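Quick question, first post here. What does this chain look like in 3D?
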Amino acid sequence: MKLLEKIRDDVVACARCPRLVACRERAAANPPARFLESEYWARPVPGFGDGRASLVVVGLAPAAHGANRTGRMFTGDRSGDWLCRGLHRAGFADRSDSVSRDDGLRLTDCYVTAVVRCAPPFNRPTPIERDACAEFLERELRALTHTRAILALGSFAWDGVLRVLRSMGEPVSPKPKFSHGAEVVVGRRVLVGSYHPSQQNTFTRRLTEAMFDDAISLAARCARAG
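> Answer (accepted):
Ran it through. Tokens below.
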């Protein structure tokens, strides 16, 4: 746990990417009407959850008015609502909503993080920004020694996880292709793919809650196997 606390402190203190620093601060300075009274976190967002997690969930990056506001991954926006409900149904979360970093939510056997730690313009980090953040995900995966499965939310997270695992010396060649429900063994872990629970996917029903539950259940079976 001390390793994860050190990683958390290093994430929060990071200011490597000027474009991302400007974006996260601009979002905090210009909130939508529904968040005018909110005090924004407006710093890089660390991962959170169980330090003995067998399942790690990896997203793209904090949302400008979600985790960038609340200071906790997948908290305070619709994507977070979807993820928290899914994790609750699968037995990883003790409640079905994720509202604020002090709402009492506890994850059991699960850790939630992202490839990039600051809210990027239009949810599109550059390759340089992605690579600048890769160190943090690698350090988390090294510290989470009980992890058996990684659930990647979207192709960006899938590719980011594979890049990090490759840098850790894991066999990832040829590169596995992302798809919803994809499952591939990489070293001692199983990587599972799911469409990201973004509004773009959920409002168009490219991703339904049943589909999301199936992906989480698959990742849970892989995490709990053995």
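The longest helix spans residues 127-143.
Residues 2-224 form a domain with the Uracil-DNA Glycosylase, subunit E fold (CATH 3.40.470.10).
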